[in-house]
Design brief:
about 35% helix, 11 helices, globular, binds uridine 5'-triphosphate, nine-stranded mixed sheet, alpha/beta, two-stranded antiparallel ribbon, single chain
Length: about 290
Amino acid sequence: SAASDVYKRQVIPAAGLGTRVLPATKSMPKEMYPIVDKPAIQYIVEEAVNSGITDILIITNRGKNIIEDYFDRSPELEGRLLEDKKEEFYNQVVSVSKLANIFFLRQKETKGLGHAVNCARSFISGEPFAVLYGDDVIIGEDPACGQLIRAYEKYGKAVVGIKEVAKENIHKYSSLKVEHLDGTYYSCTDMVEKPKTEADVLSYFSILGRCVLTPDIFDLLDKTAPGAGGEIQLTDAMRVLAQTVGMIGVDFTGKRYDIGNKLGILEATVELALKHPELKDDFRAYIKNLASEL
Ligand code: UTP
């Protein structure tokens, strides 16, 4: 699943306001929420690294400095851990700062996901690139981002990660017009953002958390007027790509957790704790006991 030479750059937009998880997100970025013992964004960076990506641009904003500190070295802490012979912790702490070449850029105004992606134009310098949404954690054997990269390499078109969502939830997501191609691959030729009525629904496949974009997205974003919520919507620019050159949808394997809402944070915490080598036995016993009382 290694990325080809021209294809090593990736963007993580993490500059949203996170209003669905207020009041906590008032001073704590949702991307930094610990899912058991790692912040959400670390799972995302690890997925990118496991997909062959070496250079990651994280889009932040005011109040998200702790994301930068997290991926930096921490000499005082490292010194203390060594002194106290806590080598395992020392190794964990140091390895976070060595995961990848991580760059930061501030989105100066919260004008939407499309606007955040457009901030990355000069970093991307004319190559295709992956976007991993900072609040979507995907856990699986085969990294989701790598699955999208393989589809890009096969078809040479922009790729979106897709999953079927429940009928009653489609109004919260995008709805894609898709045709099955092969295995997990679909062609996507149109989309509707947050369909209001049943008649607007093109399918129950929606874009979830990952895409590989071609650099022509930037000119499209320049021309995109503010849409829903007064924000520049990435899906508005993607729709033009879908309708003109077409896009590829990958029904990726792996489980996706939406860290942007409270229930998603809890699901990720419980399910990853049940897999955690150190915690799983105790936590399983606790959950079983608790469940029997409900
Ligand atoms: P969301 O749609 O979840 O928006 O963004 P949000 O503002 O973070 O959350 P709510 O809806 O207020 O609860 C999807 C991704 O795009 C990023 C977010 O950080 C998240 O990773 N984003 C969103 C930006 O980087 N900039 C923006 O202006 C908006």
